[in-house]
Amino acid sequence: MTAFCVYAFSLSITMRIEHQPAFVLHARAYRETSLLIECLTRDYGRVGLVARGVRRERARIPRALLQPLIPIQLDWSGRGELATLTHVEAAAPGVELAGEALLCALYLNELVLRITPRQDPHPDLFADYAETLIRLARGEAQAWTLRRFERDLLAHLGYALVLDAEGDSGAPLDPQGEYAYRHEHGPVPWRGSRDGVRLRGAALLALARDEMPASEDLPSLRRLMRAVISSHLDGGELRAWGMLADARRASSSDSD
């Protein structure tokens, strides 16, 4: 059977899914009374659903549960890439976030929405996403929390970074050495500003070992991850990057 025939056959099958753990990533109005929602699910990856009639006063499906940061369970049915939501219930209390922690969570949602294809299952990604929300709610260091999630997200999608050896020679990184990171290649010794982001070997090794790096290394790791993510978005940017930068500037100004 050709790939086209397999794809056409898969679109012809009506799926009925029940009690699927999920988080809403984004919702927008659809027609007069409905919503289009994008969800991250445990077993089906990112899915698009039509929540019919939820904007009516007496909707059968509670619209209040179709908000980001609430662990939910979903039922849906349909075929193709856009199915119909048939039931939703809360799986746990929503995650309480405010200020910059809330902006970080909105960044996670935009990142997952933009970089993951629909219906590409990654159960470990779902677990990492839920754990990252918990870390933000606990007040753990936001920059490091985001770098860990970005690293693991790229790995789940097949874009794992080389973080402990030189891309050319395979030699172990020198913690005191300075490196540039070449996409789809790995770290190479730093030769000048044309190389892009400049990083210490210690920063890359800390990320590889899941050990919080020195505070002075966090900005270079942020620039590295943004460059890598942008390359997988065909050079695009995320709106949340600007929002987080504005929040950091405002915080710095308030502390002066």
Topology:
Elements: H1 3-12, E1 15-30, E2 34-41, E3 45-51, E4 72-78, E5 82-90, H2 99-115, H3 123-138, H4 142-156, E6 178-182, E7 186-189, E8 198-200, H5 201-209, H6 218-232, H7 239-255
Parallel strand pairs: 3-5
Antiparallel strand pairs: 1-2, 1-4, 2-3, 4-5, 6-7, 6-8
Helix pairs in contact: 2-3, 2-4, 2-7, 3-4, 4-6
Key words describing this protein structure:
256 residues; alpha+beta; OB fold (Dihydrolipoamide Acetyltransferase, E2P); de novo design (two linked rop proteins); five-stranded mixed beta barrel; three-stranded antiparallel β-sheet; 8 strands; elongated; disordered N terminus
Would you write up a description of this structure?
The protein has helices spanning about 5-10, 100-115, 125-140, 140-155, 200-210, 220-230, 240-255, and strands at about 15-30, 35-40, 45-50, 70-80, 80-90, 180, 185-190, 200. With about 260 residues, the protein is α+β, with helices and mostly antiparallel strands. The chain has two domains: about 15-90, OB fold (Dihydrolipoamide Acetyltransferase, E2P), CATH 2.40.50; about 100-255, Up-down Bundle (de novo design (two linked rop proteins)). The strands form two sheets. A five-stranded mixed barrel has the order 1-2-3-5-4. A hairpin with a 3-residue loop joins strand 1 (about 15-30) and strand 2. Mean pLDDT is about 90; it is low at about 1-10.
